[in-house]
Structures are given as C-alpha cells and as structure tokens.
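Protocol step 4 of 6.
Sequence for DUF2269 family protein (Paenibacillus gyeongsangnamensis) entered exactly as in the expression construct, tag removed. Do not edit the line below.
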Amino acid sequence: MYLWLVFIHSISAMVSIGPFFALIPMLKKLRASEGAVYEAYLDSFTFAVRLSKHAGHVLVFSGLLLMWLGDWPWNTPWIFGTFVVLFLSLFFMARAFSPTIRLLRKQEPNRTVLLNKLSRALYLYLTVLFIMLWLMIMKPLFW
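Step 5 output, structure tokens:
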C-alpha cells in the first residue's frame, strides 16, 4: 500500500507541475492571437490551472497518508517547510491566475499589462512548485 501511495504521490506531483510548462510557449501565442484563437488559449490556460489544482488535492491527500503510514512527524524539517510553502502558495494561486484570466476575457484595454502579470505569476508559481519539489526530494535537515 505504501509503495502505491508513493507512486500516486509522484504522479500527482508531475500532473500538478507539468501543465504549467505547456503554458510557457502559449503565453507568446496568446499575445499575438485574436478572436476565437485567443479564447481557446485562455480556455487552455484555465484548464491547466484547474488540472494542476485538482492534482494538488491528490498530492496533499496522498502526502498526508504517506506521513501517517510512514510515521513521519509534522515537525520533520522538510515536511514542515513543504507545508509552509504549500500554505503560502494556496493564497498565491487563488489570486494569481483566475482573476487575471477573467480580466483578459473581458478584452480589457491593458492586455499587455495583464499578460505580463500572467507571465510573472506563471514563473513565480513554477518557482514555488520547484521549491516544494526540492524539499520533498532532497529532504534537507534545517534543524
């Protein structure tokens, strides 16, 4: 059972990080697109964010099960650090993508500013995800 949970945890980590890499080249195309193509790119962006969010739910649940079955305490440095970063990233993700995508759908006149904001959010969120990934893989001992 434990090994299957590790597998599920690993797959959900890949699914929660992977879609964001498809969005990097899409940002450039989003800047140059119009009409139905523009809407399709925004739909793809929304789908990737939702997929990542739901995979993140599986990731957290499987991680909690792994902690329980593996008898890992909450105060283990890499677990505590991961949960701190995860908690902070939840606030970030809730405000970073969906409100900006909603404004882009309204065809706001400051499209370039909004796309720059979306681009910054994408790279910042990838950085946060990689910090959590580093904590989970390297398991550093901070104390």
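Step 6, annotate. The first helix runs from residue 2 to 32.
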